[in-house]
Amino acid sequence: MLRARPETLMLLGALLTGPLDPAGSQDALSLPWEVQRYDGWFNNLRHHERGAVGCRLQRRVPANYADGVYQALQEPQLPNPRRLSDAATRGIAGLPSLRNRTVLGVFFGYHVLSDVVSVETPGCPAEFLNIRIPPGDPVFDPDQRGDVVLPFQRSRWDPKTGRSPSNPRDLYRPFLDPSISPEFVAASEQFLSTMVPPGVYMRNASCHFRKVLNKGFQSSQVLRVCNNYWIRENPNLNSTQEVNELLLGMASQISELEDRIVVEDLRDYWPGPGKFSRTDYVASSIQRGRDMGLPSYSQALLAFGLDIPRNWSDLNPNVDPQVLKATAALYNQDLSQLELLPGGLLESHGDPGPLFSAIVLDQFVRLRDGDRYWFENTRNGLFSKKEIEEIRNTTLRDVLVAVINVDPSALQPNVFVWHKGAPCPQPKQLTTDGLPQCAPLTVLDFFEGSSPGFAITIIALCCLPLVSLLLSGVVAYFRGRERKKLQKKGKESVKREAAKDGVPAMEWPGPKESSSPIIIQLLPDRCLQVLNRRLTVLRMVQLQPLQQVNLILSSNRGCRTLLLKIPKEYDLVLLFSSEEERGAFVQQLRDFCVRWALGLHVAEMSEKELFRKAVTKQQRERILEIFFRHLFAQVLDINQADAGTLPLDSSQKVREALTCELSRAEFAESLGLKPQDMFVDSMFSLADKDGNGYLSFREFLDILVVFMKGSPEDKSRLMFTMYDLDENGFLSKDEFFTMMRSFIEISNNCLSKAQLAEVVESMFRESGFQDKEELTWEDFHFMLRDHDSELRFTQLCVKGGDGGGIRDIFKQNISCRVSFITRTPGERSHPQGLGPPASGAPELGGPGLKKRFGKKAAVPIPRLYTEALQEKMQRGLLAQKLQQYKRFVENYRRHIVCVTIFSAISVGMFADRAYYYGFVSPPSGIAQTTLVGIILSRGTAASVSFMFSYILLTMCRNLITFLRETFLNRYVPFDAAVDFHRWIAMAAVVLAILHSAGHAVNVYIFSVSPLSLLACVFPNVFVNDGSKLPQKFYWWFFQTVPGMTGVLLLLVLAIMYVFASHHFRRRSFRGFWLTHHLYILLYALLIIHGSYALIQLPSFHIYFLVPAIIYGGDKLVSLSRKKVEISVVKAELLPSGVTYLQFQRPQGFEYKSGQWVRIACLALGTTEYHPFTLTSAPHEDTLSLHIRAVGPWTTRLREIYSAPRGNGCAGYPKLYLDGPFGEGHQEWHKFEVSVLVGGGIGVTPFASILKDLVFKSSLGSQMLCKKVYFIWVTRTQRQFEWLADIIREVEENDHQDLVSVHIYITQLAEKFDLRTTMLYICERHFQKVLNRSLFTGLRSITHFGRPPFEPFFNSLQEVHPQVRKIGVFSCGPPGMTKNVEKACQLVNRQDRAHFVHHYENF
C-alpha cells in the first residue's frame, strides 16, 4: 500500500475545507542528495520514527474505553448501533449538494482515505464487537427471529498499548503517517458517506448518458451502488472506454446533500463481513469508533476549543426535531453521552459541522507541516519555484484529460464541483425511485454442500482399522489355508478312498436350519454311517436282525426327498439333486435290507407332510434332556421341582422320554466318548440286559445307581462283570489286559502293548497272583485293596443334554482330583491326599466339609492350612484390601514407578501444550477460534511425539540385555520391555485418535471461519485479500502437508496395530513382521507432518533424536551378527511337530540359561527372523533349539530339515543368528526357591535352565538357588518326549535333590471317572513298585488333570517356611500363565512368603 502523494492530500483538503495557506512549511536543511525512504523513516529529523511504518495513530483527544484501557463501550452504556443508525441517518435520498459537489469528488475522497487510513483491516488475534440486530428489523431480521447478529471484527492494534489507563489500546497501521488521528478517520469517512448517491451515471464525451445492464433487471439509467460496489467483473465495465464513461458520469453528477442522511445503499445494503452479504455501514462505523475508543461529542468539542451545545435542539436547526428526539431517547436524553460520529453528522448541513471541520483542518495542516518532503517546502530542494507553481496549477481535470484522452470541453474546470453552464448536466437528481432493488441480505453457509463429504471422510478415516482388519483377515485366511495344505499333505488319497463307497446327499436338520452336505455309507454288519464333507463320522446306526426300517418318499416338488425312520433312533431326512439320484440310493437300501434280513416298508406323502412327520435331532435332544433329568432325579433323590422346568405338555413329554431307549452312539456321547471305544462297548453290553442294542430308562438307571451310590465292592464287581467277556465268572489275564487297554484309549494309547503287559504282570506279581491265570472277583477286589477311597468317589461322567441343563443342576457332583506337596520329614515331596471338591471349580484342596451326591463327607484339613491362615482370613474387608494392595505394590513396584514416571512425563507434556495454546496462546488467536480442538490436538501432539520416540528404547534388545545385568535392573523392569512396548503403543494410539478428533474439530471450524480469521491464525498461509470463502474441508485433509501426512499416518497406524494383534500374529507372523517394518515410514511421516509449521515450529525431532541414535546403534550391533552364516550340526524330527536343531556356537557367543535368540534360515529367506528360546545349556559346545511347527514358516522349516542329506551336516541349510537376548526366566538363580511352570512348547526355556542347574551343582558351584520345582503341563507326554529325555538326564545327575519335577497330563479326564481312577491306580502301583512313572518312565510324579496352583504355592510356604521370596517363572499359553498369575496374587494376600511371577506367552 503506497502513501498518498502530497497533491492528493491537498486536493482532498480543498474538497472538504477549502484552500490551505502554504504558510507552515517546515524549516529544514537543504539536502538535495537525499532520497526519500518508502517507509517514511527519518522524515522528521528530530523524531525519526514519525512518519515511519509501524507507529501508531496519534490521538487528539484522550481515549474513551469502558475500562479506561481496552474494553470498548457497548450496550447498555451506549445505544444499539443499528437503532442509532436508523434514528440518526435514515431519510429520503435525492437531495442535491448545497455546493454542487460532484460524485467524482466523493469517490476520489474515498480513494484517498483508503490509501491513507485503511482501518478496516481486522486485528490479530481476532476480537469481535458484534452488532446485535433488533428483533423484527425489516432488512436483517424480517422473520423476527431475534437472534441475528452482524459480525464486527475489531481493528488491528498496537500490542504495546492497552495495558493501563495511561497506555490505552491504540490502533496500529502499517504504511500510515503517525500524525493521522482516529478522530480524522471517523470524521472524514462519515461526512463523505452522507454524500454518496444511490446510483452513478455513465456518459460519453458527447454528453450521452447511457443505460446500464443489471442482473435480473433489463436496463436502468445508472449503476446502482448497492449492487455494483463489490462486483469485480462488472458487465458494464469490461473496457477502458466504459471506465472512462463512468468517470465522466461522476464528474457531471451532483452528490447527495451534506447532511445527516445516508442512503439505504450504505445504511442497509453495504457489503457485509464474513458470511453476511449485507451490513449497516453507519452502524459498523459507530462500532468502529467504539473500537478505537473515540471520545464523546462533547469531549471532542472541548478538546478542539469549540462551544458545547446546551441542549439537543442546539445541535443543528436544520435537523428534523423528531430525529433529534429519537436520538436523544436512545441516549436517555443525556447529551454528554452523544458519540462523536452521530454528533458530527447531526451538526452538518451543506458543509462539515464545526467539529468535523476542525478535525479535518487540523489533520491536513499537520500532514503538511509535519512532512519534510512537502512539495511547497522550498528548503528541501526537491522542486524549483517554477515546478511548485506548476504543481499548484495542475488539477484532476488536467490529469483526466491527459489519461483518458478526452476533449477538455467535456469536463468542467473543477471536476469536484458542477456549476451551472458546465458541460453535460445530469438528467436529474437521483432518487431510489425507478432504480433496481438492492439485492437482499443472504447468509452464506461456508459448509453448504460439504456435510456429506465431511461425514464420509470422517467415517472413512474411522474405517481404516476395519479395512486393515479386513486385509489382515484375508492374509490370515490365505496363510491358514497354506498351513492347512502343508499339514494335510498326503491325507487326500486316504479320504478319497474312504468316500468312494458313499452316496452324497443333503441332510435336513430341522425347521429354520440350513441343510448340510453329507455322505451316506451302508457298511457291512448292518451298519449305516453318516459323514460330513471332511469325512468325519457324524452318526452311526447299528441295525438289528429282522429290524423294521420305514422309508417315506416325497411325492411332489421334484420327488427328491426321503425320510428314513429307524425305531429308537431320530429320523434321517435326505435331499438329493434329482429323482434319479434318490432312486439309486433307494435301490441300494433295498439291496442292503435284503442282504441283512431287514424289513423295509416304503410309503409316499407330500414333502410338507414328510417334514412335519420327521423326528429331528433337535426334538430327540429335548427328549433326552428330560430323560437325563428324571434319571438323575431318581438316583439322587432330588425333588422333581429341583430337576428343572418342563414344557407345558410335560406329562406327555415325560412319558415319551421315559419310554425312549438310548442307542450306542447316544450312550457314548453322554459319556463324552466315541461309539467305537472298547470301554463303551463293554459298558453298553453290560447295561443292555435284554440285548436289543438299546438302553432303556431302567437299564441305564440300574448301572448309574451303582456308580452314584454303590460301595467300592459294588463298583469293582461291576468292572469285573464288564470285562468277564466269556461270562465264566473269572477274569483271565487276557481279559485283564483288554480292560487296561480300554482305559489306555483315553490317553491316546500312550503305552505300548509291551509296556501294558509289563504293568499287568507287575500288578499280578505285587498282589501275589503271579501263578494265577484267572482271577475271581475276590482276587480282583483284593488287587484294588489300597484304593477304596478312589473307588468310593468314582462315578460315570454323564454329560446330559447339550443345552447344559444337567451340567448346571448337578455341577456340585462333578469332582476333580488334584495333587499338592506337603512337608513330610525324611522323605522327598510326594503327592498327598485325594479329596472331594469344594465346588465345581477345577482347582481344589480347600478345607471344610464338602458336598457329594447330596451328602456331606468329612475331609481332614490339610496341614498346609495353618492356624495363622485362618486368623488372617478373619480380618475385615478393609484390612484384606489393604493387604492385597500392599502385596501388589511390593510385587510390581518397579513397574509402577516406571509407568508412573513415563505417564507423568506424558501427562505433563499434554498439560503444558494444552495450557499454552488454550490460555497463554500466541497472538494468532487460535484458542479463541477452536479452543477444544487446539487443546486436544496440541496436547496430544506433544505426548504422542514423546511416546512414539521413546518407544524405540523398548526394542533395543541388545541394550536391554546388557542393562539387565547392571544395578539398573533393581530399579527398571527390563524383562517387561515388550509389555511396556505394548502399553506405550496402546496409549499412543489412543492419544493419536484424540489428536485426530481434535483436528477433525479444527478442520470443521476452519472450514466455516471467514478468511479474516484464518489470516490471523495462519498468517503464512492465508492473506485477507477480500475473498469471503474459506478453504473447503478437503483442502485441509488432502491438499496440505499436515493433512495428507496425517491421513497416511492413520493408515499406517491402522495397518501396524491390526497386524500386530495377538490374534493375527499367531496366524501370520510374517505379516506382522513385514507390516511392523512400516515404522520407518511412520517416523518419516511424523517428521514431515510437523515440518509445515502451521501452528508451531517443528518439534518432533527434539524428542526423536536421542532415542533414534540409541536405537540405530542397537540395530548396528544386531546387523554385525546377523550376516554370519552358521552351520547346522544336527537336525531331528521329534513327535508333535517339533524340530530339533543343533548348530555351531559362534566364537565369543556367551549366553545364560533361559535366554533366547532370533534365527533366519537361508533356505527360507534372509530377512525373516523368528524368536526361539535356547534349549542348550551355557556350558555346552553347541547351541540347540526345539521348534514346534505351528505356522507356515516353522512348517516349511521342518520340511527343509526332514529331507535326507547325503553329505551329512554339510547338506543342511545354514542359519543367521541374532542374540542372545535376556528375559525374566534367566533370573531363576536369584531366588532361594524357584518354581518353573511350562506348558506345551513353553517348556523350552526350562530345558536349558534344568541342565544348567544340574551342571553347576555337580561342579559344586555356589548358588543362591537351593530348590527348583518344575511343573510340566502337557496334553500327553508323547508330545514332548525330547523333554522327558532331558528330565531323565537331570534325574540321573541330580545327586543333591535340587529339582522336583511334577508332570500334569491334561488329556486324561480330571473327573473321578472310572477309567481315570483305574489309570491312577495303575500309575501309583507302577510308581510304588518300580519308582518310575507308568506314562513317562521318569521318577518324577505324574498327575492327571491340570495343576492346582494355589494349593501348590500354599504348600510351598509350608515346606519352606524360612524363605521370604519365591520366584515363579511360567511360559506357555495365555490361559495357563493367567492362572499362575492369579494364584500368585491370591497367595500373596497372606503375610507369608512372597511369590514373584515372571511369565512369557506364545
Automatic annotation (TrEMBL):
<dbReference type="GO" id="GO:0016175">
    <property type="term" value="F:superoxide-generating NAD(P)H oxidase activity"/>
</dbReference>
<keyword id="KW-0521">NADP</keyword>
<keyword id="KW-0893">Thyroid hormones biosynthesis</keyword>
<dbReference type="GO" id="GO:0035264">
    <property type="term" value="P:multicellular organism growth"/>
</dbReference>
<dbReference type="GO" id="GO:0006952">
    <property type="term" value="P:defense response"/>
</dbReference>
<dbReference type="Pfam" id="PF13833">
    <property type="entry name" value="EF-hand_8"/>
</dbReference>
<keyword id="KW-0732">Signal</keyword>
<feature type="transmembrane region" description="Helical">
    <location>
        <begin position="1004"/>
        <end position="1022"/>
    </location>
</feature>
<dbReference type="GO" id="GO:0042554">
    <property type="term" value="P:superoxide anion generation"/>
</dbReference>
<keyword id="KW-1133">Transmembrane helix</keyword>
<dbReference type="GO" id="GO:0042446">
    <property type="term" value="P:hormone biosynthetic process"/>
</dbReference>
<dbReference type="GO" id="GO:0016324">
    <property type="term" value="C:apical plasma membrane"/>
</dbReference>
<dbReference type="Pfam" id="PF08030">
    <property type="entry name" value="NAD_binding_6"/>
</dbReference>
<dbReference type="InterPro" id="IPR011992">
    <property type="entry name" value="EF-hand-dom_pair"/>
</dbReference>
<dbReference type="InterPro" id="IPR018247">
    <property type="entry name" value="EF_Hand_1_Ca_BS"/>
</dbReference>
<dbReference type="Pfam" id="PF00036">
    <property type="entry name" value="EF-hand_1"/>
</dbReference>
<keyword id="KW-0677">Repeat</keyword>
<dbReference type="GO" id="GO:0030282">
    <property type="term" value="P:bone mineralization"/>
</dbReference>
<feature type="domain" description="EF-hand">
    <location>
        <begin position="711"/>
        <end position="746"/>
    </location>
</feature>
<dbReference type="GO" id="GO:0005509">
    <property type="term" value="F:calcium ion binding"/>
</dbReference>
<dbReference type="InterPro" id="IPR050369">
    <property type="entry name" value="RBOH/FRE"/>
</dbReference>
<dbReference type="GO" id="GO:0043020">
    <property type="term" value="C:NADPH oxidase complex"/>
</dbReference>
<dbReference type="InterPro" id="IPR039261">
    <property type="entry name" value="FNR_nucleotide-bd"/>
</dbReference>
<feature type="transmembrane region" description="Helical">
    <location>
        <begin position="892"/>
        <end position="910"/>
    </location>
</feature>
<dbReference type="GO" id="GO:0048855">
    <property type="term" value="P:adenohypophysis morphogenesis"/>
</dbReference>
<feature type="transmembrane region" description="Helical">
    <location>
        <begin position="454"/>
        <end position="478"/>
    </location>
</feature>
<keyword id="KW-0106">Calcium</keyword>
<dbReference type="GO" id="GO:0042744">
    <property type="term" value="P:hydrogen peroxide catabolic process"/>
</dbReference>
<keyword id="KW-0472">Membrane</keyword>
<feature type="transmembrane region" description="Helical">
    <location>
        <begin position="1034"/>
        <end position="1060"/>
    </location>
</feature>
<dbReference type="InterPro" id="IPR017938">
    <property type="entry name" value="Riboflavin_synthase-like_b-brl"/>
</dbReference>
<keyword id="KW-0285">Flavoprotein</keyword>
<dbReference type="GO" id="GO:0006590">
    <property type="term" value="P:thyroid hormone generation"/>
</dbReference>
<keyword id="KW-0560">Oxidoreductase</keyword>
<dbReference type="GO" id="GO:0030878">
    <property type="term" value="P:thyroid gland development"/>
</dbReference>
<dbReference type="GO" id="GO:0006979">
    <property type="term" value="P:response to oxidative stress"/>
</dbReference>
<feature type="domain" description="EF-hand">
    <location>
        <begin position="675"/>
        <end position="710"/>
    </location>
</feature>
<dbReference type="Pfam" id="PF08022">
    <property type="entry name" value="FAD_binding_8"/>
</dbReference>
<keyword id="KW-0479">Metal-binding</keyword>
<comment type="similarity">
    <text>In the N-terminal section; belongs to the peroxidase family.</text>
</comment>
<dbReference type="Pfam" id="PF01794">
    <property type="entry name" value="Ferric_reduct"/>
</dbReference>
<dbReference type="InterPro" id="IPR010255">
    <property type="entry name" value="Haem_peroxidase_sf"/>
</dbReference>
